[in-house]
Amino acid sequence: MNKRGRSRSTPPWPVAIPAIIALAFLVLPVLGLLIRAPWGRLIELLTSRTSLDALRLSLVTALSATVISIAIGLPLAWLLARAEFPGRRFARALVTVPLVLPPVVGGIALLLAFGRRGMVGQYLDSCCGITLPFSTPGVVVAETFVAMPFLIITVEGALRGLDTRLEDAAATLGASKSAVFRRVTLPLIGPSLIAGGVLTFARALGEFGATITFAGNLPGVTQTLPLAVYMGLEGDPDQAIALSLVLLLVSIAVLVGLRDRWLRTGVAS
Amino acid sequence: MTGVVARVVLNRGDFTLDIEVAVAPGEVVAVLGPNGAGKSSLLRALCGLAAIDQGQIVIGDVVVDDPARDVFVDPAHRRIGFVFQDYRLFPHLSVLDNVAFGPRSAGASGGKARDQARVWIDRFGLTDLAGRRPGEISGGQAQRVALARALAAQPHALLLDEPLAALDIATRQDVRAELRSHLRSFQGPTILVTHDPLDALVLADRVVVLESGRVTQAGTTAQIAQRPATSYVAQVMGLNLLRGQASAGLIALDDGGELHAPDHLLAGPALVAVRPTAISLHAHKPEGSARNVWAGHVTGVQPIGDRVRVTVSGAPSVVVDVTAGAVVELGLVAGSEVWLSTKATELEVYPG
Amino acid sequence: MRRPVILVVAAALALSACSSAGPSSTSPGTSPATSGSAAAQGALTVFAASSLKEAFTAIGKAFEAANRGVSVTFNFGPSSTLATQIGAGAPADVFASASGKTMDTVAAAGLAPSRSNFATNSLEIATPPASSVAISSLADLAKPGVKVAVCQQAVPCGAGAQTLFTKNSVQIKPVTEEVDVKSVLAKVELGEVDAGIVYVTDVQAAGAKVVGVVIPADHNVTNKYPIAAIKGSANAATAQAFVAFVLSPAGQAALASAGFAAP
Fold it and tell me: Which residues in chain B have their CB less than 8 angstroms from residue A173's CB?
């Protein structure tokens, strides 16, 4: 016992050295950001018009993308997990495409579909005068495209792992299908839904490539935080670093939030 | 209400379940059979979690499943209470809200549903547990909650799937006795499936024996115990069940005779279960420590596997399992006079 | 037994990584330069403004043809980004910018000791073909509902567009400020905007994919393109030779055919 305990506490060097390099590689850039941060001007930089516009826009669009992802992604996750229909495996594979697709490619694809002359976009334009590119809703579309798979995959996994016997039990107690979903299924997958929502929000908040390609870049309208960071690098690098800190803070908050949830479910189960 | 009348035919690959059951309101029927006999499939079909391939299910006066007429009522509209073997309490709801689930589904508001649930909670002695989560109560308590939850939905019929199988042996006897009284007070038809003959004998009025998807025997518990139609029935149903009035540790049996109980706790109507192997046969009145000794005459001798079942008429009349050697030694034939003895500790006594 | 094998593999990988990352990867046995600048050889990295893509790609090929053993690699992008990257130590040998201002930032860091203007470019309105919105002048861009794309302020074409609007006293609210001029052109080509402010050279390079609307010279904005060999280049001689080649008649001819005007 003692011997095994000691060998566990001192890992062999062929493992330890690359492991330390990997850790340093991940930590150093964050450290660089913190060291180079213009702490003295931080308040001033973060309360500038550009920063506040980008911050507000990012929060509004990322939240909208999360809400839309839940509204339409949850039913899709349910279908993928529960329903039998032809092409289900194909549909499940399709859902993961935006996860592996470079976001810029996603942006181009969105333009070709929902752009003013796109497959669907031209009809939106001619029938209802809706043009998505260069508009705040366009940002939401781009963010939803890249972020929704996180929600679908998380929730679908939870639904597949869920004990359907509880839903059977609810049915024998007189609960209709929708009541079973509301009062049994949803509360049971609740933690996963929250986790998926948080991941979706974080992904939407950090989205850059698809947004700049599909929605363009205009301060106050389509310039989200990551775009402001990128553009800031050209003009005022300090501003870019200050905004990067905000994004870093959000990432840490997401991690802490999810960790908290995992801990709690760990205790409950 | 006309109870449950059903012919259930289910085809599952090589396996076919084909069973007819009719249960009157207030009656408890046990479906007894070994694992894999199709018992759980029968219950799933009755409550609508599975559709039958042939036959018809009538609950009350309503046809709820009839493939020939393309009728199928889903589980939510059958009003059949189901107590699952693993209880299936909702882990995210308190005991109270579990029991309130049925009333809530029937359209009651949250507050009203809880009020209705509290009546059942109190009746089942769960008042102190009302706020707990299912993860925080014992197996026996969970069994009570599951039954209370099923009954709170005011079902037209009640189904129980191996209601005691998930409990350890120590609590099983207490819960069985409790369950018996709850089932007695339910007005509708009850079907319980079990592989444990004691459940069938203690809890049910009638027994249907199901083997490999077919009914091999049906009747009252006494009929089946005395004339087992198959070796399975003979093996599992070799149990003597006697009714009587308990008082001061003595049970006066309804059909004559009296037995010493293992303790003095019970008073009033009682049910005594005693295994055939727990009774000894003697040629002369025994002198030993057994407290229950009585005389009788042999009415039947029937070999069952490596043992012989001897039916003895007396006060009380019982069946006794002995070895083939004992039959020869005692010269047992129909009409033989014998003495019987059993220890008080061999008796299992339930409130009747 | 397993551990030594892994170490050997790791060492081999490390070695191969070192050799391929080396500064000079010319294949041995290549004969020295035959004409032009006799000293020119090796790999050259040129950072150039997006608008120079077509002209410099042609010039690079001609330079390679004239100097055996030289390989030119281009990094095209927004001038301001390139300037930032060079300031941060990016391995550029030559920087060709679309504006004096961005070159100033590199010069201020002491990285561009001498520079020469090698071309000028002016702005033009690019419109999608078969557009339903009729655009014939700058004034048309100010009409309500007309979607206009420009470059972001930090890059020369964005600053130029702003100057253009001010000079002509038109109030234009663009729908997007793109990263660089090629992104503006792309949005025009896709028909997502009704017009984009780009360089004359971009309209020419795009061919039939866009329709140009010429801005008269006296209303237009012209910007000078400076080029400089970057101080501390590992291949300074070749860098100087490349700058000279751009300024030579051959280089100027290539620029002219791409639509640039003489400096």
Answer: 101-102, 105, 149-150, 153
Question: From the CA of B57, how many Å to the nearest CA of chain A?
Answer: 16
Residues in chain A: 269
CATH of domain C38-120+224-257: 3.40.190.10
pLDDT per residue as tens digits for the range B153-211: 999 999 999 988 888 877 887 888 888 888 988 999 999 999 888 888 888 999 999 99
What is the phi/psi pair of residue B272, to 5°?
-115, 125
Asked if residue C4 has a cis previous peptide bond (ω within 30° of 0), the answer is no
Q: Report pLDDT digits (tens) over C147-157.
A: 999 999 888 89
Q: Which of residues 124-183 of A touch C (CB under 8 A)?
A: 131, 133-134
Query: Which pTM does this prediction carry?
Result: 0.74
Task: Say how many CA atoms lie within 13 Å of B283 toward its Cβ.
Answer: 8
Question: Is B47 found in the same domain as B142?
Answer: yes
Tell me the three state secondary structure of residue B309: strand
Segment A8-14 mean pLDDT: 77
* Closest Cβ opposite residue C190 in set A111, A218, A219: A111
Q: What is the CATH number of the domain that holds B108?
A: 3.40.50.300
What is the rounded (10 degree) CA torsion for B301, B303, B304, B310?
Answer: 20
Residues B69, B207 share a domain:
yes
C194 touches chain A (CB under 8 A): no
Chains with ≥3 CB–CB distances under 8 Å to A? B, C
Chains B and A touch (3+ CB pairs under 8 A): yes
Same domain, B229 and B251: no
The per-residue pLDDT for A267 is: 36
More confident residue, B188 or A125: B188
SS3 C100: helix
Q: Which CATH number fits domain C121-222: 1.10.10.10, 3.40.190.10, 3.40.50.1860, 1.20.1440.130?
A: 3.40.190.10
ipTM of the complex: 0.75
